[in-house]
């Protein structure tokens, strides 16, 4: 998949969520207000936060799709991870806001009976958000986009929240009014967990954490199959948005000419690009294979 196609696919998936989220936000705010449901109205406020988060993600994708330049020789992909951090903070703040509102309602002990429109709004939200999650997670995984994966988790968070909202507002509608804030409070802890997971994975990428070992082993095996490569002495990789930047140290015949070793290194790079469409660049260092050598590194 070409670079432009990758970003267009991610952009399309996020825009679908952006506009559907806008419609859900308006629906839930109206249903919560006119249907006397604190939980549904809180769900609408949460959607407003998501609306902002998705907007930030669209901006991040626009920045991330810019090619490398003189000031950013490794590209602008980190903008996606920064956006995912922002989304995780919004998720956590939303959970805190919902928990606070639920506790305040329980302390005051006033539980108005919600209208049927509030129950229906929660039910519609569950269906729409679960569909959005499945669509976004599928596209996000296929592209390896941290921003889109964060948005997908945010959609799942909304679906979970709305399940609890539906249970609470449904019970309140049939007479158990206290279930509305109780369900909202329980849901907040699920939201905290999703926010933590999103923050952790995004921070790992921003800190240049290694990708999964299975991927590194697959790249190593591919490189060692190229004729002239005696051994992959070391492999490192880091994320840059949807792409990986790979560093390889290859052991080769010390009697080999520079021209020949360069041709082999180029073949390794071409093979990696052919088999791994999420690899954006490969840096290769060549070592002589007939003697031990110490890696010079100040990190």
The total count of helices amounts to 8
CATH superfamily of the largest domain: Cation efflux protein transmembrane domain
* Amino-to-carboxy terminus distance: 35 Å
Q: What's the Cα radius of gyration? A: 25 Å
Strand-residue proportion: 5-15%
CATH first level of the largest domain: which class? Answer: Mainly Alpha
Number of domains: 2
Please describe the biggest sheet, giving its number of strands, its sense, and whether it closes into a barrel.
3 strands, mixed
Note the overall shape. elongated
CATH topology of the largest domain: Alpha-lytic protease prodomain-like
Number of strands: 3
Structural class: mainly alpha
Low-pLDDT segments:
none
CATH architecture tag of the largest domain: Up-down Bundle
Average pLDDT, to the nearest integer? 85
- The ordered H/E elements are HHHHHHHEEHE
Question: Share of helix among residues?
Answer: 55-70%
The strand line-up of the biggest sheet is 1-2-3
Describe the structure.
The chain has helices at 3-34, 38-64, 78-108, 116-143, 146-173, 179-206, 213-224, 258-275, and strands at residues 231-240, 243-252, 279-288. It has 299 residues and is mainly alpha-helical. It has two domains: 3-206, Alpha-lytic protease prodomain-like (Up-down Bundle); 213-288, Cation efflux protein, cytoplasmic domain (Alpha-Beta Plaits). The protein has a three-stranded mixed beta sheet. Strand 1 (231-240) and strand 2 (243-252) form a beta hairpin. The protein is elongated, with a radius of gyration of 25 Å.
């Amino acid at each position: 998949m070409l670079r432009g196609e990758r970003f267009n696919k991610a952009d399309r998936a996020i825009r679908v969520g952006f506009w559907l989220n806008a419609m859900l936000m308006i629906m839930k705010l109206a249903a919560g207000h006119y249907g006397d449901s604190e939980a549904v109205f809180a769900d609408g406020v949460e959607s407003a936060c998501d609306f902002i988060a998705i907007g930030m993600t669209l901006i991040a994708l626009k920045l991330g799709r810019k090619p490398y330049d003189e000031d950013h020789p490794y590209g602008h992909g980190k903008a996606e991870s920064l956006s995912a951090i922002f989304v995780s903070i919004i998720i956590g703040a939303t959970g805190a806001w919902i928990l606070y509102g639920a506790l305040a309602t329980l302390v005051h002990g006033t539980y108005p009976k919600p209208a049927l429109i509030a129950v229906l709004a929660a039910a519609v939200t569950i269906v729409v958000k679960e569909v959005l999650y499945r669509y976004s997670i599928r596209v996000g995984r296929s592209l390896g986009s941290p921003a889109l994966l964060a948005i997908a988790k945010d959609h799942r968070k909304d679906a979970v929240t709305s399940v609890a909202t539906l249970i609470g507002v449904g019970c309140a509608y049939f007479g158990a009014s206290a279930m509305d804030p109780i369900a909202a409070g329980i849901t907040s802890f699920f939201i905290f967990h999703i926010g933590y997971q999103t923050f952790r994975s995004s921070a790992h990428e921003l800190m240049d954490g290694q990708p999964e070992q299975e991927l590194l082993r697959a790249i190593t095996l591919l490189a060692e199959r190229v004729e002239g490569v005696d051994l992959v002495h070391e492999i490192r990789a880091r994320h840059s948005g949807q792409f990986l930047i790979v560093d390889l140290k290859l052991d080769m015949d010390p009697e080999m000419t520079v021209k020949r070793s360069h041709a082999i290194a180029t073949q390794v790079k071409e093979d990696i690009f052919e088999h791994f469409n999420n690899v954006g660049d490969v840096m290769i260092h060549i070592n002589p294979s007939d003697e031990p050598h110490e890696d010079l590194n100040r990190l």
